[in-house]
Amino acid sequence: MLGGMSWESSAEYYRLANELVRDRLGGLHSARIVLASVDFADIEALQVAGRWDEAGEVLARAAAGLQAAGAELLLLCTNTMHKVADRVEAAVDIPLLHLADATAAAVRRAGLSTVGLLGTAFTMEQDFYRDRLAAAGLTVLVPPADERAEVHRIIYDELCLGDVRESSREIYLAVIDRLAAAGAEGVILGCTEIELLIRARDSPVPVFPTTRLHVEAAVAAALV
């Protein structure tokens, strides 16, 4: 696991992996995990400055370290930094399980073809993530600019700091309602921290929690 972006969501990755392995194998079984956790302040500064190549190099070095430590499957525990997934993947010989692929597969299994996408502004506005979903046959809707800005702000100013507010949940649910009214059959929670805020029972349409879906795919691949 290559995480720390933020550590709040990486903790969810660790918890889910261990719970799913325990459920599959029973008893005292837990997941064999090698975790590299970067300093998110450094990564966020590079994001804001548009220095994606440098951020990719930081993550590529960390990924190589995971492989050297014995990892056999790589998870990049962040949606946004899949912008540099190709660079990370090129640094290792082990497979990288792409988060957008795991998510798209879950949407297709649910029989849906048009989905809303919530995430950081980078994820919602740039093509690295939306194009990957589109390549899987999905039509992707995003909120208008003002709503994208507020969704992004809540992620960085609140959720990445472990600050989960009911008022922000209401803002997100209003955004989801409008995406559904625009034709979204479901909504991808395309930032790993959003699962701290939005639960399936909150939404009028199915939600696709990318952290859980990513970990489920990883455990299925690891326990063949």
Automatic annotation (TrEMBL):
UniProt record similarity statement: Belongs to the aspartate/glutamate racemases family.
This protein's UniProt keywords: Isomerase
Pfam families the UniProt entry points to: Asp_Glu_race
Gene3D superfamilies: 3.40.50.1860
UniProt-recorded name of the protein: Aspartate/glutamate racemase family protein
InterPro entries: Asp/Glu/hydantoin_racemase (IPR015942), Asp/Glu_race (IPR001920), Asp_race (IPR004380)
